[in-house]
Design brief:
The protein has 523 residues and is mainly beta. The protein folds into three domains: 129 residues, no CATH class; 163 residues, no CATH class; 110 residues. Helices cover 1% and strands 36% of the residues. The longest helix is centred in the last third of the chain and has 5 residues. The N terminus and C terminus are likely disordered.
Length: 523
Amino acid sequence: MEVSVSRGRRCFITRRIGSGLTFKPSSRSSLWAWESCSCQSAGPLRPCRWTPNCRGPCRRPQPSRRTSRSRSGAPSTSVPDGQVVVFHPDGSRIPGWPRTFETLTQPAFPMGDAGVGDLDGDGSPDIVTCVVSGAPLRRNFLYAMRIDGTDLPGWPIELTNTSTTDYFSCSNVPTLLADLDGDGYLDVIRAMNRGTILAFDRHGKSLTGWPVRLGPDYSNNGIIREIGADLLAVDLEGTHQMDLVFVESGLNPRLAVVSGDGRLLQGFPVGLAGIVDRDAPAVADLDGNDQVELVQATMPFYGNLIEPVPEPTAGAPIDPARLHVIRRDGSSRPGWPRQLQLGASWGAVLADLDGDGLPEILQQDGDQLLGFDAGGNLLQGFPVIVHRDFVRSQSLATTAWVLGDLNGDRRPDLMQVWSSLYAGNAYMRVFGLRATGNPLRGFPFDADGMLAASRPVLTDLNGDGVNDLVMLISDGGNGGWRLVAWDLGSLLRGTGTTSPLSPNLSMPGGQLPGHGQGPNRPS
């Protein structure tokens, strides 16, 4: 799940239940939410009994599409609940929403985070999302919607695979908007399964040279890998034309860069040893020479094909975790790669931490946060060790590190959220650090009974000059999901109400339906 944060005070928040939060700059301030679930209810105001794919309480059902009888004989309503909802930051809904997909074969739900941007050039942001319809054979539709919830002309379009009859579906990575053809308008880039990437212009027509796919990797038994990490658009060649950067997920993946017309750039793809999961590539001009570099992390491979978990493991890995810095010709920058101990399933974060105008590289490595300069030298004050602190934990999950001003001093700070389950009880802890690794006032703070279901997103919702925290959370391991906002400025003012070290908490709207399994599992 993939999150981008604008530094402006007004923004869009987009959310598909089960995927992530995405902030995009706008002249209007709104909160988007996707809901995707089905529930059965004995009455309009009574709690739902969820179908096998869903758990937890539910809101009032919509008009019945199908009626059946439960074992008790009471009538029940099955409500396919795949919809897009738009909120203001205060939790009130914007007129024209929610947007439902009732005309599609059910279940129908958005897949992956949406792309938000001005697609038609009218000065107002639009939202683009893939909606997956039907089971077990899926149909895929790409929707482009205006701020009032109506479709843009020419949209939606159906995504089809004419080259094969194999299973075809949108992947769970975000939809990307970027100008690939240089016409001054945003294009839509969508990753599909089996490593396929589609690209369309603002009218929904396929771009020349697309789709793009690396195809079988014959140096590794002809395997076809999926794409599970965010796509990235950047002018890698310095031609003022956007290129697309992507990395495969799996063992010994390939990092690739293609031009706007779908051609592989010289020197790519680059083979990587180890494992990539959601480790998305990052890009920046690290040394100020007007040429950008790519930063890509991998995780270790210990000789088994079990899903890697960044925990201590007996024995040395066959392929250790590494952090790569790759130049635009596909070669490694001198001093790189740097070997890591455990790595992490999240990619690097790039930011100017010392104010010299050049970005530094931050990378999680197990329970450590490492900081490097462009030459691969460890920054002063790093590594930073985030102690586990939970007295007991049967299951522990951490989000990616995110950057934002947490104390109003206009300098970048760091945030990460940990979630723990023990004996059926849920605990969430929010860590905040200065860029130097020193602790911030009021951090960490706890949110008992909650589990993080998205990466933390930072933006100033209330205009007090301090970024606030917005997350999707679940009420325990089996509860419903909520969009939750914390007023982090209250930490500085000393007005937090939940405890002396906890900020004021607000929950926009009611509880949102969702579940922790199946196609809408949080990522």
